[in-house]
Structure formats: C-alpha cells, structure tokens
Specification:
By secondary structure, the chain is mainly beta. The protein has one domain: BH3618-like, CATH 2.30.290. Helix content is 11%, strand content 35%. The protein is built from 3 helices and 10 strands, in the order E-E-E-E-E-E-H-H-E-E-E-E-H. Strands 3, 4, 5, 6, 7, 8, 9 and 10 form an 8-stranded antiparallel sheet that branches. A hairpin with a 3-residue loop joins strand 1 and strand 2. It is globular.
Amino acid sequence: MTVDTKAYGPVEIDERQQISLPLGLYGFEGLGDYILLDARQRPFYWLQSLEVREVAFVLIDPKVIRPDYDAEINPRDFEALGLDGPEDEHFLQFAIVTIPEDRQDMTANLQGPIIINKESREGQQCISRNDKWHVRHNIIEEMAAAGKDAC
C-alpha cells in the first residue's frame, strides 16, 4: 500500500505499520487511522494520519531519554487495549516530540504517552498519573542528564 506522507511524500508501507487510535489523540479526536514509520534520524518515529496528510507527529520512546520513565498509566487503559501492563510483550509506548526552529529546544510530552498493543495494532493516548512527568521535557537536556549522546 502506498501512503502520501507529510515527511517523505509517497512511501510503500506494510499493513503491519497501520495503527488504530479509536479515541484519536488529544486535539485530534476525529482522526483514528495512522501508520507508524521509522524516521530517517534515529531514535525518532513518525505517526502519520491516513486521513489527513498534513497531520503527522514525531515520536520517541520515552525510555530513550529517561530510562527511569514510568508513566503510571491507569490499569483500565492497559485493559482496554488487551495489555497486562508495561511488562506485556506486546506493549509499545511513545512520547510526542515538538521540534521548534532551534532543535536544541525540542521537547517530549511525557505526561501524555501513546501506548500501543503491537499485536492488535490498537493504541490510545493516556495521561500519566505520575506528576513528575510534564508536557515539555527538553530532550537534549534529559539525555545529557542520563549520560546519553544527544540526537
């Protein structure tokens, strides 16, 4: 299947890259069909809407920038996706990244992670119950504090 993406133009994708977010994302509740793509620059990913080409989000695994990340997601959110919790073998999680003009200021939303059941390919955006996590964590600073090389 070919999808016209915001980042790369038309790309050939495998159906296993399709992700359903029945509740949408906060602010984009009406959009539920997406594809998950590896970005050309690691450790990032693209979440591209299949319904509106201009709607695409850069994602990162929160553990890349904060190895101690535990969103303390409500167990009902896991149950809704058929997951046993963050230790489930089918569990994936991502944080939405905001990239301003000055890339040194790029941030990750660790308060609202997206969790996905990679077997069913269904997901949802959740709210962290841990008030340690905010909507804007500077990625460069967090990785430096964790002793990792910046992106």
